[in-house]
């Protein structure tokens, strides 16, 4: 077997509780998870179960309290330099144009400006923003900003792409367009993707594998499903196929109870 792109081994993350500083809260525990080179893996689970925590661990933004992280076989210490990260929130610098934003990472790496500009323009074209390089973030729609963010990540040609609910703020049509575009780009480049989402439909439509997390505290994977739907896929069309519906029913069977538990916990915390 080839070395996985990401290998989380028996990870635990314990935080000082926000509600009671004297208490500790174990968000995730006994999490072992791999993403193969070129594999698209989604993690789904109830709200607050620790999905973003795991992504932060894979990005090297958060050191786990226990366990090891290996990136292409090497123990991760510090930031994961082989990964690009696409957050739920906007990541564009408001004072830079779309082109300036996409160029920024290349410039920080020390690439000569003319070359950085040429590569950034090429990526803006690939994400459908070729004519909008001179727009500032506030002059773009939410969908355009997401495209620019995507170009910002992909221009750096990372071997691993970490995505935390990147499309959750978009309307459904724009979202489906973006999902298809991400799949097309992924299919062409075959990077390892770790994708976090609340949306089971999205997870199944996009992924090679879907991992289901239990409700917290001490969340861990409780189910793993191979998505054997042929590619290329159209995310809207695939949702009407019998295989999709069967997989959806199977995964929802595992996820449903955890979502209810997570919801009850939220209500208790809010009370
Ligand atoms: N830095 C921190 N300090 C204290 N608690 C934290 C910290 N980061 C996360 N937590 C807690 O750990 C748990 C997991 O959080 P996380 O954001 O990873 O969940 P999530 O599954 O991504 O949530 P959502 O689906 O709502 O985005 C939550 O209960 C959260 O309050």
Automatic annotation (TrEMBL):
Protein name per its UniProtKB record: Bicarbonate transport ATP-binding protein CmpD
PROSITE patterns according to UniProt: ABC_TRANSPORTER_1 (PS00211), ABC_TRANSPORTER_2 (PS50893)
Organism encoding this protein: Tepidimonas aquatica
InterPro entries registered for this protein in UniProt: AAA+_ATPase, ABC_transporter-like_ATP-bd, ABC_transporter-like_CS, ABC_transporter_ATP-bind, P-loop_NTPase
Keywords: ATP-binding, Cell membrane, Hydrolase, Membrane, Nucleotide-binding, Transport
Limits of the ABC transporter domain: 6-240
Pfam families: ABC_tran (PF00005)
EC number: 3.6.3.-
Family per record: Belongs to the ABC transporter superfamily.
GO molecular function, one term: ATP hydrolysis activity
Record SUPFAM superfamilies: P-loop containing nucleoside triphosphate hydrolases (SSF52540)
